[in-house]
Specification:
Elements lengths: L1 H5 L12 H34 L3 E6 L2 E5 L1 H7 L4 H8 L21 H7 L4 E7 L5 E10 L6 E8 L6 H4 L6 H6 L1 H13 L3 E8 L2 E13 L2 E6 L1 H10 L2 E4 L6 E11 L4 E10 L18 E6 L2 E2 L4 E6 L3 E6 L11 E10 L2 E16 L4 E8 L6 H20 L4
Length: 402
Protein backbone atom coordinates (compact mmCIF):
# COMPACT_ATOMS: atom_id res chain seq x y z
CA UNK A 1 0.00 0.00 0.00
CA UNK A 2 2.85 2.35 0.84
CA UNK A 3 4.37 1.71 -2.59
CA UNK A 4 1.02 2.57 -4.18
CA UNK A 5 0.88 5.86 -2.27
CA UNK A 6 4.41 6.72 -3.41
CA UNK A 7 3.37 6.02 -6.99
CA UNK A 8 0.51 8.51 -6.61
CA UNK A 9 -2.48 6.27 -5.99
CA UNK A 10 -5.65 8.36 -6.24
CA UNK A 11 -8.09 6.21 -4.25
CA UNK A 12 -8.55 2.56 -3.10
CA UNK A 13 -11.58 0.42 -4.04
CA UNK A 14 -12.96 -2.62 -2.30
CA UNK A 15 -13.49 -5.82 -4.23
CA UNK A 16 -15.65 -6.70 -5.98
CA UNK A 17 -15.47 -3.38 -7.89
CA UNK A 18 -18.73 -1.57 -8.56
CA UNK A 19 -18.75 -0.27 -12.15
CA UNK A 20 -20.64 2.90 -11.30
CA UNK A 21 -18.24 3.68 -8.46
CA UNK A 22 -15.23 2.94 -10.64
CA UNK A 23 -16.51 5.27 -13.38
CA UNK A 24 -17.07 8.05 -10.87
CA UNK A 25 -13.59 7.66 -9.39
CA UNK A 26 -11.93 7.49 -12.79
CA UNK A 27 -13.69 10.69 -13.83
CA UNK A 28 -12.58 12.40 -10.61
CA UNK A 29 -9.01 11.21 -11.17
CA UNK A 30 -8.94 12.46 -14.77
CA UNK A 31 -10.40 15.80 -13.65
CA UNK A 32 -7.81 16.15 -10.88
CA UNK A 33 -4.96 15.32 -13.28
CA UNK A 34 -6.33 17.82 -15.84
CA UNK A 35 -6.66 20.52 -13.20
CA UNK A 36 -3.10 19.86 -12.06
CA UNK A 37 -1.86 20.00 -15.66
CA UNK A 38 -3.92 23.12 -16.34
CA UNK A 39 -2.42 24.73 -13.26
CA UNK A 40 1.10 23.94 -14.48
CA UNK A 41 0.31 25.28 -17.98
CA UNK A 42 -1.40 28.35 -16.52
CA UNK A 43 1.54 29.04 -14.23
CA UNK A 44 4.02 28.62 -17.10
CA UNK A 45 2.04 30.96 -19.36
CA UNK A 46 1.65 33.56 -16.63
CA UNK A 47 5.38 33.54 -15.91
CA UNK A 48 6.21 33.86 -19.61
CA UNK A 49 3.75 36.73 -20.06
CA UNK A 50 5.00 38.47 -16.91
CA UNK A 51 8.66 38.21 -17.84
CA UNK A 52 7.96 39.47 -21.37
CA UNK A 53 6.79 42.78 -19.94
CA UNK A 54 9.33 45.59 -19.67
CA UNK A 55 7.23 47.26 -16.95
CA UNK A 56 7.11 45.86 -13.44
CA UNK A 57 4.15 43.51 -12.97
CA UNK A 58 2.86 41.85 -9.83
CA UNK A 59 0.09 39.26 -9.32
CA UNK A 60 -1.88 39.58 -6.09
CA UNK A 61 -4.29 37.39 -4.15
CA UNK A 62 -6.11 39.98 -2.12
CA UNK A 63 -3.29 42.11 -0.68
CA UNK A 64 -0.66 39.34 -0.84
CA UNK A 65 1.80 39.29 -3.79
CA UNK A 66 2.25 35.78 -5.18
CA UNK A 67 4.14 36.32 -8.44
CA UNK A 68 6.44 39.05 -9.76
CA UNK A 69 8.04 39.43 -13.18
CA UNK A 70 11.78 39.66 -13.66
CA UNK A 71 11.72 43.45 -14.05
CA UNK A 72 10.27 43.80 -10.56
CA UNK A 73 12.64 41.24 -9.04
CA UNK A 74 15.56 43.10 -10.59
CA UNK A 75 14.34 46.43 -9.22
CA UNK A 76 14.16 45.08 -5.66
CA UNK A 77 17.27 42.88 -6.16
CA UNK A 78 15.61 39.67 -4.98
CA UNK A 79 15.43 36.19 -6.51
CA UNK A 80 11.68 35.65 -5.92
CA UNK A 81 8.59 37.21 -4.40
CA UNK A 82 9.07 35.35 -1.11
CA UNK A 83 12.42 37.08 -0.56
CA UNK A 84 10.86 40.45 -1.46
CA UNK A 85 8.10 39.92 1.09
CA UNK A 86 10.61 38.91 3.74
CA UNK A 87 12.67 42.04 3.13
CA UNK A 88 9.92 44.61 2.61
CA UNK A 89 6.61 43.19 3.89
CA UNK A 90 3.70 45.36 2.74
CA UNK A 91 4.64 46.89 -0.63
CA UNK A 92 2.60 49.96 0.23
CA UNK A 93 5.18 50.91 2.85
CA UNK A 94 7.63 51.49 -0.02
CA UNK A 95 5.40 54.15 -1.62
CA UNK A 96 6.76 57.55 -0.59
CA UNK A 97 4.58 60.47 0.46
CA UNK A 98 3.96 63.00 -2.32
CA UNK A 99 1.10 65.40 -3.06
CA UNK A 100 -1.64 63.68 -5.06
CA UNK A 101 0.13 60.29 -4.95
CA UNK A 102 -0.88 56.90 -3.54
CA UNK A 103 0.79 55.88 -0.28
CA UNK A 104 -0.20 54.40 3.08
CA UNK A 105 -1.88 56.94 5.34
CA UNK A 106 -3.32 56.77 8.83
CA UNK A 107 -6.86 56.62 7.48
CA UNK A 108 -6.21 55.07 4.06
CA UNK A 109 -4.52 51.79 3.15
CA UNK A 110 -3.06 51.73 -0.35
CA UNK A 111 -4.49 48.30 -1.29
CA UNK A 112 -7.97 49.06 0.03
CA UNK A 113 -7.89 52.19 -2.13
CA UNK A 114 -6.89 50.46 -5.40
CA UNK A 115 -9.15 47.43 -4.87
CA UNK A 116 -12.14 49.76 -4.62
CA UNK A 117 -11.10 51.49 -7.86
CA UNK A 118 -9.81 48.88 -10.34
CA UNK A 119 -8.61 50.33 -13.66
CA UNK A 120 -7.99 53.73 -12.03
CA UNK A 121 -4.56 55.21 -12.73
CA UNK A 122 -2.55 56.14 -9.63
CA UNK A 123 0.82 57.85 -9.19
CA UNK A 124 3.46 56.48 -6.79
CA UNK A 125 6.99 57.51 -5.82
CA UNK A 126 9.72 54.95 -5.05
CA UNK A 127 13.41 55.21 -4.25
CA UNK A 128 15.91 52.93 -6.00
CA UNK A 129 19.11 51.33 -4.62
CA UNK A 130 21.10 54.43 -5.62
CA UNK A 131 18.85 56.81 -3.70
CA UNK A 132 17.10 58.21 -6.79
CA UNK A 133 13.43 59.17 -6.55
CA UNK A 134 11.40 57.44 -9.27
CA UNK A 135 7.91 58.26 -10.51
CA UNK A 136 5.58 55.41 -11.57
CA UNK A 137 1.98 55.13 -12.62
CA UNK A 138 0.18 52.18 -11.05
CA UNK A 139 -2.96 50.40 -12.19
CA UNK A 140 -4.80 47.47 -10.62
CA UNK A 141 -6.88 45.08 -12.70
CA UNK A 142 -8.92 42.17 -11.39
CA UNK A 143 -8.70 38.81 -13.19
CA UNK A 144 -12.08 37.63 -14.57
CA UNK A 145 -13.39 34.42 -12.99
CA UNK A 146 -10.49 34.40 -10.51
CA UNK A 147 -11.91 35.64 -7.22
CA UNK A 148 -9.55 37.87 -5.22
CA UNK A 149 -6.88 37.70 -7.96
CA UNK A 150 -5.54 40.88 -9.50
CA UNK A 151 -2.64 42.31 -11.51
CA UNK A 152 -0.62 45.37 -10.52
CA UNK A 153 1.32 47.09 -13.29
CA UNK A 154 3.98 49.76 -12.68
CA UNK A 155 4.94 52.11 -15.54
CA UNK A 156 8.12 54.14 -14.95
CA UNK A 157 7.58 57.74 -16.13
CA UNK A 158 10.44 59.34 -14.18
CA UNK A 159 12.03 60.72 -17.34
CA UNK A 160 8.98 62.96 -17.90
CA UNK A 161 10.04 65.04 -14.86
CA UNK A 162 6.47 65.34 -13.60
CA UNK A 163 7.10 65.02 -9.86
CA UNK A 164 7.34 68.77 -9.45
CA UNK A 165 3.92 69.25 -11.08
CA UNK A 166 2.21 67.31 -8.30
CA UNK A 167 4.07 68.61 -5.26
CA UNK A 168 3.08 72.22 -4.67
CA UNK A 169 5.96 72.59 -2.24
CA UNK A 170 8.47 71.86 -5.01
CA UNK A 171 7.23 74.11 -7.80
CA UNK A 172 5.62 77.38 -8.69
CA UNK A 173 2.47 77.37 -10.74
CA UNK A 174 3.99 79.62 -13.42
CA UNK A 175 6.53 76.90 -14.18
CA UNK A 176 3.71 74.38 -14.61
CA UNK A 177 1.98 76.53 -17.22
CA UNK A 178 5.18 76.80 -19.24
CA UNK A 179 5.80 73.06 -19.20
CA UNK A 180 3.57 72.19 -22.17
CA UNK A 181 5.85 69.31 -23.13
CA UNK A 182 5.23 67.62 -19.80
CA UNK A 183 1.48 68.18 -20.20
CA UNK A 184 1.33 66.24 -23.46
CA UNK A 185 3.60 63.51 -22.14
CA UNK A 186 1.23 63.10 -19.22
CA UNK A 187 -1.72 62.88 -21.62
CA UNK A 188 0.20 60.17 -23.50
CA UNK A 189 0.52 58.24 -20.24
CA UNK A 190 -3.25 58.47 -19.69
CA UNK A 191 -3.83 57.40 -23.29
CA UNK A 192 -1.45 54.46 -23.03
CA UNK A 193 -3.20 53.25 -19.88
CA UNK A 194 -6.69 53.78 -21.34
CA UNK A 195 -7.45 55.90 -18.28
CA UNK A 196 -10.91 57.42 -17.98
CA UNK A 197 -11.10 61.22 -17.70
CA UNK A 198 -13.98 63.69 -17.57
CA UNK A 199 -14.83 66.48 -19.99
CA UNK A 200 -16.42 69.52 -18.37
CA UNK A 201 -18.36 72.26 -20.13
CA UNK A 202 -20.97 74.91 -19.45
CA UNK A 203 -24.12 75.41 -21.49
CA UNK A 204 -25.37 78.92 -20.68
CA UNK A 205 -24.07 78.39 -17.15
CA UNK A 206 -25.40 74.82 -16.78
CA UNK A 207 -22.59 72.44 -15.77
CA UNK A 208 -22.23 69.49 -18.20
CA UNK A 209 -19.77 66.71 -17.28
CA UNK A 210 -19.37 63.26 -18.85
CA UNK A 211 -16.80 60.48 -19.09
CA UNK A 212 -14.26 60.52 -21.91
CA UNK A 213 -11.37 58.41 -23.20
CA UNK A 214 -8.26 59.85 -24.84
CA UNK A 215 -7.95 58.24 -28.29
CA UNK A 216 -4.96 60.13 -29.68
CA UNK A 217 -2.21 62.55 -28.62
CA UNK A 218 -0.11 64.03 -31.44
CA UNK A 219 1.13 67.34 -32.88
CA UNK A 220 0.15 69.24 -29.72
CA UNK A 221 -3.45 68.09 -30.14
CA UNK A 222 -5.56 65.69 -28.13
CA UNK A 223 -8.54 63.67 -29.38
CA UNK A 224 -11.13 62.29 -26.99
CA UNK A 225 -14.18 60.08 -27.33
CA UNK A 226 -17.25 61.15 -25.35
CA UNK A 227 -21.02 61.01 -25.60
CA UNK A 228 -23.39 63.07 -27.75
CA UNK A 229 -24.57 65.47 -25.04
CA UNK A 230 -21.02 66.40 -24.09
CA UNK A 231 -20.25 67.00 -27.76
CA UNK A 232 -23.22 69.40 -27.95
CA UNK A 233 -21.88 71.27 -24.92
CA UNK A 234 -18.43 71.44 -26.57
CA UNK A 235 -20.06 72.67 -29.78
CA UNK A 236 -21.64 75.52 -27.81
CA UNK A 237 -18.43 76.60 -26.02
CA UNK A 238 -15.83 75.56 -28.64
CA UNK A 239 -13.57 74.51 -25.77
CA UNK A 240 -13.58 72.16 -22.78
CA UNK A 241 -11.83 71.15 -19.55
CA UNK A 242 -10.14 67.77 -18.97
CA UNK A 243 -10.51 66.64 -15.36
CA UNK A 244 -8.91 63.55 -13.79
CA UNK A 245 -7.52 62.42 -10.44
CA UNK A 246 -4.42 61.37 -12.38
CA UNK A 247 -3.70 64.99 -13.36
CA UNK A 248 -1.95 67.49 -11.06
CA UNK A 249 -4.18 70.28 -12.39
CA UNK A 250 -7.21 70.64 -14.63
CA UNK A 251 -6.30 70.99 -18.32
CA UNK A 252 -8.01 73.72 -20.29
CA UNK A 253 -8.54 72.90 -23.98
CA UNK A 254 -8.93 76.35 -25.48
CA UNK A 255 -9.55 75.61 -29.15
CA UNK A 256 -11.86 73.05 -30.78
CA UNK A 257 -10.18 71.74 -33.95
CA UNK A 258 -12.82 69.32 -35.18
CA UNK A 259 -15.75 67.23 -34.02
CA UNK A 260 -17.19 63.99 -35.40
CA UNK A 261 -20.63 63.11 -34.03
CA UNK A 262 -20.70 59.74 -35.77
CA UNK A 263 -17.44 58.60 -34.16
CA UNK A 264 -18.15 60.59 -30.94
CA UNK A 265 -14.75 62.30 -31.21
CA UNK A 266 -13.62 65.81 -30.31
CA UNK A 267 -10.15 67.21 -31.02
CA UNK A 268 -8.56 70.16 -29.21
CA UNK A 269 -5.41 72.24 -29.37
CA UNK A 270 -4.04 75.15 -27.28
CA UNK A 271 -3.90 73.14 -24.06
CA UNK A 272 -2.56 74.35 -20.71
CA UNK A 273 -2.90 73.70 -16.98
CA UNK A 274 -5.11 76.07 -15.00
CA UNK A 275 -4.74 76.87 -11.29
CA UNK A 276 -8.41 77.56 -10.62
CA UNK A 277 -11.36 76.02 -12.33
CA UNK A 278 -15.02 76.86 -12.90
CA UNK A 279 -15.74 73.23 -11.96
CA UNK A 280 -15.28 74.35 -8.33
CA UNK A 281 -17.81 77.18 -8.51
CA UNK A 282 -19.70 77.51 -5.24
CA UNK A 283 -22.69 79.29 -6.77
CA UNK A 284 -24.69 78.72 -9.94
CA UNK A 285 -24.02 81.21 -12.74
CA UNK A 286 -26.42 81.43 -15.67
CA UNK A 287 -26.41 83.27 -18.98
CA UNK A 288 -29.62 85.32 -19.24
CA UNK A 289 -32.07 85.34 -22.13
CA UNK A 290 -31.36 87.72 -25.00
CA UNK A 291 -34.22 90.16 -24.35
CA UNK A 292 -33.01 91.40 -20.96
CA UNK A 293 -32.16 94.99 -20.06
CA UNK A 294 -29.66 96.36 -17.54
CA UNK A 295 -28.89 99.94 -16.48
CA UNK A 296 -25.91 101.25 -14.53
CA UNK A 297 -25.94 104.31 -12.24
CA UNK A 298 -22.75 105.87 -10.83
CA UNK A 299 -23.24 108.64 -8.27
CA UNK A 300 -26.83 108.96 -9.56
CA UNK A 301 -25.58 109.41 -13.16
CA UNK A 302 -26.90 106.88 -15.66
CA UNK A 303 -24.47 105.23 -18.05
CA UNK A 304 -25.86 105.68 -21.58
CA UNK A 305 -23.53 103.32 -23.45
CA UNK A 306 -24.28 99.81 -24.72
CA UNK A 307 -24.52 97.26 -21.94
CA UNK A 308 -25.55 93.60 -21.56
CA UNK A 309 -25.32 90.85 -18.93
CA UNK A 310 -22.83 88.08 -19.71
CA UNK A 311 -23.71 85.94 -16.68
CA UNK A 312 -25.33 86.33 -13.29
CA UNK A 313 -25.29 84.46 -9.95
CA UNK A 314 -26.74 85.02 -6.50
CA UNK A 315 -23.56 86.89 -5.53
CA UNK A 316 -22.29 88.71 -8.60
CA UNK A 317 -22.88 89.77 -12.18
CA UNK A 318 -20.59 90.11 -15.20
CA UNK A 319 -21.58 92.76 -17.74
CA UNK A 320 -20.18 93.85 -21.08
CA UNK A 321 -19.79 97.62 -21.70
CA UNK A 322 -18.79 99.33 -24.94
CA UNK A 323 -16.96 101.97 -22.87
CA UNK A 324 -15.96 102.60 -19.27
CA UNK A 325 -18.12 105.18 -17.48
CA UNK A 326 -16.24 108.14 -15.98
CA UNK A 327 -15.30 107.54 -12.35
CA UNK A 328 -15.78 103.75 -12.47
CA UNK A 329 -12.94 101.91 -10.72
CA UNK A 330 -12.39 98.97 -8.38
CA UNK A 331 -14.53 99.18 -5.22
CA UNK A 332 -16.75 101.85 -6.76
CA UNK A 333 -20.33 101.57 -5.49
CA UNK A 334 -22.99 101.59 -8.21
CA UNK A 335 -26.67 100.84 -8.64
CA UNK A 336 -27.80 98.15 -11.06
CA UNK A 337 -31.32 98.09 -12.44
CA UNK A 338 -32.26 94.89 -14.32
CA UNK A 339 -35.34 93.62 -16.12
CA UNK A 340 -35.10 89.87 -16.69
CA UNK A 341 -37.68 87.41 -17.92
CA UNK A 342 -38.40 83.69 -17.63
CA UNK A 343 -41.31 82.02 -19.40
CA UNK A 344 -42.47 85.45 -20.64
CA UNK A 345 -42.70 86.82 -17.10
CA UNK A 346 -40.64 89.91 -16.25
CA UNK A 347 -38.59 90.00 -13.04
CA UNK A 348 -37.30 93.41 -11.88
CA UNK A 349 -34.15 93.54 -9.75
CA UNK A 350 -32.68 96.75 -8.35
CA UNK A 351 -29.68 96.71 -6.02
CA UNK A 352 -26.44 98.33 -4.98
CA UNK A 353 -23.21 96.67 -6.10
CA UNK A 354 -19.44 97.03 -5.77
CA UNK A 355 -17.09 96.84 -8.78
CA UNK A 356 -14.73 93.88 -8.31
CA UNK A 357 -12.62 93.86 -11.49
CA UNK A 358 -12.56 94.65 -15.20
CA UNK A 359 -11.07 92.99 -18.29
CA UNK A 360 -10.37 94.97 -21.44
CA UNK A 361 -11.18 93.47 -24.85
CA UNK A 362 -10.60 94.90 -28.33
CA UNK A 363 -13.91 96.78 -28.54
CA UNK A 364 -15.44 96.37 -25.09
CA UNK A 365 -14.90 95.89 -21.36
CA UNK A 366 -16.08 93.03 -19.16
CA UNK A 367 -16.82 94.25 -15.64
CA UNK A 368 -17.72 92.13 -12.58
CA UNK A 369 -19.89 93.62 -9.83
CA UNK A 370 -20.61 92.05 -6.43
CA UNK A 371 -24.17 92.56 -5.20
CA UNK A 372 -24.96 94.47 -1.98
CA UNK A 373 -28.56 93.48 -1.38
CA UNK A 374 -30.51 94.95 1.48
CA UNK A 375 -31.93 92.46 3.99
CA UNK A 376 -34.66 90.22 2.55
CA UNK A 377 -34.43 91.92 -0.88
CA UNK A 378 -32.82 89.00 -2.71
CA UNK A 379 -35.93 86.92 -3.36
CA UNK A 380 -36.47 88.12 -6.95
CA UNK A 381 -32.91 87.14 -7.88
CA UNK A 382 -33.30 83.72 -6.25
CA UNK A 383 -36.54 83.23 -8.18
CA UNK A 384 -34.89 84.28 -11.45
CA UNK A 385 -31.77 82.07 -11.06
CA UNK A 386 -33.92 79.04 -10.17
CA UNK A 387 -36.34 79.48 -13.07
CA UNK A 388 -33.61 80.37 -15.57
CA UNK A 389 -31.64 77.26 -14.65
CA UNK A 390 -34.70 75.04 -15.20
CA UNK A 391 -35.33 76.73 -18.55
CA UNK A 392 -31.73 76.06 -19.65
CA UNK A 393 -31.99 72.40 -18.55
CA UNK A 394 -35.11 71.96 -20.69
CA UNK A 395 -33.37 73.67 -23.61
CA UNK A 396 -30.27 71.48 -23.32
CA UNK A 397 -32.32 68.28 -23.11
CA UNK A 398 -33.98 69.36 -26.35
CA UNK A 399 -30.58 69.24 -28.06
CA UNK A 400 -30.74 65.43 -27.90
CA UNK A 401 -33.10 65.59 -30.85
CA UNK A 402 -31.04 67.92 -33.00
Amino acid sequence: MYQAIELGAFRFLKKPVNLSELTEILYAAVTAIKEEEDARVFDAHIRNIFNYQSSMVLMMVKEKPILANQAMLNFFEVKDIAEAMQLHGDFGNLFLEHDGFLYNQADKNWFEEISKNPQKLYHIKLIDKNGNFLHFTLKYQTIPEKNDYGILSFDDITELNLLKLFDKKQSKYDENIQDAKALFKLLEVLHRNNAKVHLHNFYKGLSITNDAIITNVADEKVTLKTNYLQQKAVQFEHKSLIVSDALPFIISCEKLVRMNFEQQNVEFTNLHFIATSPTTRKTVRVIPEENHTVSLFIEERKFHGDMKILDISLDAIKVELNALPAGLKEESEVILDMVLSVDKQNIIINTKAIMLRKDENKRSFNVVFVFKFEANKKSNLVKYITNRQMSIIREFKGLQNG
